[in-house]
Amino acid sequence: MPTNFQYRLIIIVPVAKVAAVVAWLQANIDPNTDANLGPPLNPSGLFADAITHRWCCGSFVDSDCKAILVKICQLAGVATPTPAQWDNATKAQRISWLVSVQAAILSGYGAWIDLAGNANTWNDPQAALGAMVLKVRAAS
Fold this sequence. Notes:
Helix content: 40-55%
Strand content: 15-25%
Number of strands: 5
Shape: globular
Oligomer: single chain
């Protein structure tokens, strides 16, 4: 069955910034966004160690995907494509653009964002966690 969702995003955010990101997502994308953003992460994956990040993964329509990317880039101080550049770019070009600014987003805001087309195969969330040297924190 076809879907209206054209993109899949993996978003990893430092725990100190989760409330601000969630508030923005709830106000602009989905009022039902999980208040914790998603599962807890830390470098060891051990329950005894503090949570350092939270993450989520979801599918989005083009306009929501663009809005999320623009907001994360604004928070990181990273330039985004103009509306005309975005509208005239292919999915592959949009994904390449994000790859080219991922390090700047990480250094500017401490967040990691990964973009994939939403067609049968998605980027591996474990690879995103590996890029951030994070593991899902074990349950108590």
